[in-house]
Amino acid sequence: SCGHIRISVPIVRLGDPVMASCTVSPNCSKLDREPRILWRLEDGPNQPGDKQWRLPDGTQESTITLPHMNHTKAFLFCLVPWANSFQVLDQAEIRAGYPPASPSNLSCLMYLTTNSLVCQWEPGPETHLPTNFTLKSFRSRADCQYQEDSIPDCVPGDRQNTCSIHRKHLLLYQNMVIWVQAENVLGTSESPKLCLDPMDVVKLEPPELQALDINPDLVPRQPGCLWLSWKPWEPGGFMEQECELRYQPQLRGANWTLVSHLPSSKDQFKLCGLHQAPVYTLQIRCIRSPLPGLWSSWSPGLQLRPSL
Amino acid sequence: SCGHIRISVPIVRLGDPVMASCTVSPNCSKLDREPRILWRLEDGPNQPGDKQWRLPDGTQESTITLPHMNHTKAFLFCLVPWANSFQVLDQAEIRAGYPPASPSNLSCLMYLTTNSLVCQWEPGPETHLPTNFTLKSFRSRADCQYQEDSIPDCVPGDRQNTCSIHRKHLLLYQNMVIWVQAENVLGTSESPKLCLDPMDVVKLEPPELQALDINPDLVPRQPGCLWLSWKPWEPGGFMEQECELRYQPQLRGANWTLVSHLPSSKDQFKLCGLHQAPVYTLQIRCIRSPLPGLWSSWSPGLQLRPSL
Amino acid sequence: TLPLPRSFLLKSLEQARKIQARSSVLLEQLCAVYKLCHPEELVLLGHSLGIPQAPLSHCSSQALQLTECLSQLHRGLFLYQGCLQALAGISPELAPTVDMLQLDVANFATTIWQQMETLGVVAAGQPTQSTMPAFTSAFQRRAGGVLATSRLQSFLETAHHALNHLT
Predict the structure, then answer these.
(1) What is the ipTM, given to two decimal places?
(2) Which residues of C are less than 8 Å from B43 in CB distance?
(3) Residue pair B134/B191 in contact by the 8 Å Cβ criterion
(4) What is the value of pTM for the model shown?
(5) Count of C-beta atoms within a 10 Å radius of residue A116
């Protein structure tokens, strides 16, 4: 073909210079013998290069330096005048952006229902370049100092900042090291490393709080009392847990009252000392205990009226 | 292993008899020399077989006939008494159902947006057996008498009675033959064959009906008139179409009035003769014409008030 | 007796409960899908298939010998993991439960093994898989699954008891 563009570096940091050369072969039939080579960036003006000269074999070469590449993506054209117009001989794509910053806020949760460890992170500022994130991890021992078995890289879906490690790669009840690597043409970065046992970051769901209908014949009615029962969330039933209950009268500005250190399963729980408020809202949440764990969310509010 | 069940036919028509035999090898260590062989269907009672006898090599064999197999799926157990319990030696699964009836109501639509021919059918009565439906087709000529190129079978998703033939298998503007085959262990059946050109069954969408604001300075106001415009549905724009408009005053018991043989594109359309109803509802639909086609659905109702 | 860290005991108890919970699910599924609801009717078959009954004699509260108990616990878990591995391909409906159960048993075995290493009571390397039961029919695989899982249940019941005793 008649013309050919060569670019020093097709992908640069935003604002860096870009050097390009365009060569026009002598045997490019329809052209003048020594055509004046012109350049155009995107839909900018046609402009001459910095220098143009003739190579021994008759080839014409022009070079140009774009001092600051401010487009994240732009096409550079090499043209020559022809008849009363300009003819494009070649086109090259230039991209500009930033190397990836270190991903931050890496956190992971173990889901007992899907049996997978799901981690998420913040990717950091836009790089304007195709950037691959990979969740890396390996099995370790107590203090995460040594790598035991490796775990296959977890590659997130397109433009997703979360990845799910399948159960078969996890060694539960042992520590593992997890981090995120970000990589593009301009560089690589890594997040800080986490050292965790998947079972210490189980996403625990709260129990289901239920009101108990107490048979007045069996149990003497006590004003200002409520009877409750709850059972642990079934998939987490094997984990020893501790729970706390909070209740609040539906009155403007009322505060929550907290009852801590409750068992995760209770067939009958009597809550007294409630004054004759119209209705009380009650919620319960649990945490794995004494082994380490994360608090579950509060259960949906249960509206109950204390016995009169 | 000690015991082995053989079934005459593991899959039968519902209600048909099933014959089975169970053989207990002599060298089944912990058993009495000539154990009494028992049978159990699902969680039914343990019952002796019809006959039991000793083979020359010492093997004990028992046979049983289940006169009418009324379960669509059942497990048959072969047991022997042992210590003071019964021991299961083998288990066989028996299934019962019906051969497939001919699939019916096969119909196809060509979707210009997905470029695929989607056919659907009614599978016929439940067979109670794994039954595979396959959409078969081949390219043909005008009268669909001869098979030209074959087209790969279209296998629907699990328990789905619809299948989508990809554009690359379709020869548009030529006839093809399409039918559904249903097959299970007890038999095979076929739907009646369709002979169609995909382009004759395009799923056409109606135009978008719009009210025109007429500049009273340019066009003298005429009481009881409305100005409309419409353009054909973009993906079907290449097809010559004919449209019809219907309008109805929003009065109880009012009838639709139909305006037929309208073009598929109209910049300005004046509709007059409308009396002073509060509001009129207008809809338009189109059909490929003069080439064969299917009516589009009616466009969403446009509510307009005739000029006063 | 050797000091066993409380976190090891608590984790082991939790792992035992986790496996017991999942074993119950598998037994319920085997009963629902294949009508194999009575392990006691499969004892004879178990003999011929070589389904193991792993001993935990050193873990009984009367005659608790910690080092032997831990190695019996590890060997038993290793044996039952082998049995569960032989169940591979039992059926698409049950495969997920069997896979998860097998992973849980393997992870519990690792927890025990690593604690034995930490205590320096490990004689040779990890035990190699003994001969796994070979199932030659779909029925044997299902029946073997019922028997192995129910024996794993009682094995864990004894283990849970012993570990509770140590906490």
Answers:
(1) 0.82
(2) 35, 37
(3) no
(4) 0.86
(5) 19
